[in-house]
Amino acid sequence: MLTITVKSFDQLTTKELYDLLQLRSEVFVVEQDCVYQDIDGKDQKALHVLGFKDEILVAYTRIFKPGDYFELASIGRVVVKDNQRKHKYGYDIMEASIQAIKAEYNQTKIKISAQCYLKRFYNNLNFFEVGEQYLEDGIPHIAMVYDNKKPHLA
Question: Which domain holds residue 67?
Fold first, then answer.
């Protein structure tokens, strides 16, 4: 079971910021062998959704209000520590992120830029493809939009 908290950039402790940057780098840079600028100047605008297991950060996303990243509210940097994925914490952190967008921004339409291999995972959370696939940092992605009107599959 994850303990999930949502914080603004200014509310993050130095340790939480270090841990979330370390987790993002561990997965997006090292595991996925992708050289890109993770520290992009957008963390200050985001709300950070942190998932802890036994006080260790194992899952994370950042969320944005409409206009701060996409025209719709959005979720990005979705990450779960490699050795914790078997617990399906990706669903927990995404559900918490969707709820945080509803609570903090009063929004029900959400856009993400999803790695193509994760389409089914996001479909299970009621995100559906819009447009064509594209490359982002050398990895195939597709835009997806959350539709809370469709039956939930997860």
Answer: 3-146
Domain harbouring 92, CATH code: 3.40.630.30
Whether residue 133 lies inside any domain: the answer is yes
Shortest CA distance to 15 belongs to which of 46, 56, 54?
56
Q: Give buried/exposed letters for 94-117 (b at 16+ CB in 10 A, else e).
A: bebbbebbeeebebeebbbebbee
- pTM for the model: 0.94
- Please check whether residue 151 lies inside any domain of the structure: no
Number of domains in the chain: 1
Helices (H), 26-118: 89-105
Q: Which residues contact 62 (CB under 8 A, 6 or more apart)?
A: 42, 43, 46, 47, 48, 49, 75, 76, 77
The tens digit of pLDDT for each residue in 47-83 reads 999 999 999 999 999 999 999 999 999 999 999 999 9
Q: Which residues does 89 contact at the CB level (< 8 Å), separation at least 6?
A: 2, 51, 53, 58, 59, 80
